[in-house]
Amino acid sequence: RDLRMSRGLGDVYKRQILLLILLLSLLIKLSIHHCFYSIIYKLNNFYTLIFTLYIYGIKKENSRQNMRTV
Fold this sequence. Notes:
The chain is mostly helical. It has one helix at residues 2-69.
């Protein structure tokens, strides 16, 4: 009877370890996904800023040209 009890506990411990490994792998995947999303979001903000500054520069240059022709 002691052998069966210890074997049963071993199975419980194995399941707990497998569950822990599964949860850790899920957390790692989520953190990688979050990190990737964060990088994409920052790049998007950066390119939006660059585009906005470019458009602002074009508008400013056009307004200077319009002032010279008047």
